């Protein structure tokens, strides 16, 4: 009854658009996809396109943990207890939260998993959980970009703190260097967008994920994307990989 009462307050336009979306998604095949790539590789650009094209839910483990804590689910309470003690959330707990999320109607056609697994142990635990549901990971999309290209992409980023408008010194410069086009206020660079911070993040990424890629390569499901190419070209590569 509670769910029905909530639906009564949903505007007609929202109900119709969701009904149309579900009808469009009904014939789509199920897909379970993992995205792997370093900071600035373009996953954030491609995720919404994949989600829309294949009717998948997008699972970012950091967001899911925060949501579980906010909703005070049993697993969320366990995660909060660990974080309050300054401890890392266990792999089993993260896999449990993913398992919970997969029961949502929006995940009925499958998922895009971003930011997990980061280790082979996590990959094995994820596979074991999916196996209990009779499922498996279908594809691992590996966003390959040279570190030098990432450095140019990331260290050139500038942000207007008030609005979140972003610029790039080479690819999308402001009209006046260092100044927001709209407000005339100064732009800033995020602390994470410096060459020093990027180098340590990339070192950690390569060390962590190389074994994970090797693990999934043995299963024959890794697709290497040339992610330094323009976004449209990367989208075409992804469509070909998933068709």
Automatic annotation (TrEMBL):
Ranges of residues in domain Adenylate kinase active site lid: 157-192
The entry's keywords: Kinase, Nucleotide-binding, Transferase
Reaction catalyzed: AMP + ATP = 2 ADP
Protein name: adenylate kinase
Classification via NCBIfam families: adk, PRK00279.1-2, PRK00279.1-3
SUPFAM superfamilies documented for this protein: P-loop containing nucleoside triphosphate hydrolases
Family stated for the protein in its record: Belongs to the adenylate kinase family.
Species in which this protein is naturally found: Sphagnum troendelagicum
Annotated Pfam families: ADK, ADK_lid
Cross-referenced CDD domains: ADK
EC number(s) on file: 2.7.4.3
